[in-house]
Amino acid sequence: MAKKVYVIDTNIILNDLHNIYKLSQDGENIIVIPETVLIELEDKKKEMGEIGYQAREFARLLSKAKVKEADHNEGFKVAKLYIGSLNIHIMSMERYQSDIDQSHISESNDKRIIEIAELAQKHYKGMKIIFISLDVYARTFAILKNIKTETLRDDKDEVPEFGTIKTITVSDEMGKKLKNLPIAAVDPDYQAGDFSYQFIHENGKSDFGIVYNGYIDLLKENEFKGIKIKPVNLEQKFYMKAILSNYYDLIVVDAKAGTGKTLLAFACAMRLIEKRHFDKIIYVRNSIESLDKGADVGYLAGNDEKFRVYNMALNDTLEHIAKKMLKKSESTDNINAVETKILELIAKYRIDKLWPGEARGRTLSDAIVILDEWQNSSAKTTQLILSRLDNSCTAIVIGSNRQIDNFYLNKYNNGLTALLKETQKEHDEINMFAIELKKAVRGRYAEFSERVFG
After folding, report:
1. HSE-up of 452 (CA within 13 Å, CB side)?
2. What CATH number was assigned to the domain covering residues 4-156?
3. Domain 231-453 in CATH 3.40.50.300
4. Does pLDDT of 40 surpass 70?
5. Average pLDDT, the chain
6. Does residue 450 have a pLDDT over 70?
7. pTM score, two decimals?
């Protein structure tokens, strides 16, 4: 007999389909899905980003289900589905007390879902019924009906400290032989997650370095020679050093607005292509505010106008680089020269864009894959994209836990945080690097808004 019955809200699936498996506990618990949730998911399938992807994933899961039986009771029905170890019950009612108010459709749907939770209390006698939702309003409606409620427990998790620059004092003698020295010989407290170091010598001089496979690689004076976009602070130097060294398979960055995270990633990626380490740049952006625009113009790859609509941030980045590459007179007096240069950059570095929903079935090779706005992606979407990369790729994951636009995610459960946690461990398959960019370089407005509203 099942231990618990979980009645789940739509947002639990849109947060991450894998939540169903977690709650199921290998079939020990029953997952009840109200028919209103199915209706909402059907509507969300049309969206082109993270939310639409999760809704479509659920539809694919449902298509694999086997119907064991359907209970027809007075006033309601229960369809019992089995998908592997999953025990899913779809519940519907002939009549609901809550009328559908088109002007308050979300609230109406919430109340209908709660009615199913009430019904579950009567139907599954002797079992523990729990309503699961991320929505505080829906949980409040349930509490008023004397229904036990919970949210996902990830909000009780912790976001680890990561990407800090560790300071170590060394003797002058030790300082002379830091290059390629095992980090354990300098820092006996070294552990996974210590990537960036400042080494302070007894004479007051400082060296800076990153750690790769347990060894120190120092920052050189001419490290960024020939790159049009230069780092302007120490954090950026470590970030660019990590990319340009080509040591790491996966670089994860959490950064405040205006810290140059995307711009520097592209500048470094272009340099690596010039050195023939990679063949192309693939830009993946998971941004909630851009999804509606994408839906308006269609979801096909295509002309430059669509490129602009889908990837305004990418276009801004390329425009900045293009202006740096042009002579001052060309970039300021001739708009066409800038646009032409952007098209040259796209062709020369084979810059391509990829929406998460397009990744299924693809294999990406010989590419630097830049995953932008990743605080708006779930762990499931992160798995989808990373599993498309073969061994010839490097991934740069960029985001800001201060700017989460996805209603169904928070700083504890998004794909960016999931990867940041993994940077605190040693992995046999890949080498990881993490850095936090805290200093805004965009200008005084970014600094002001971060200080006042951050």
Report:
1. 6
2. 3.40.50.1010
3. yes
4. yes
5. 87
6. no
7. 0.78
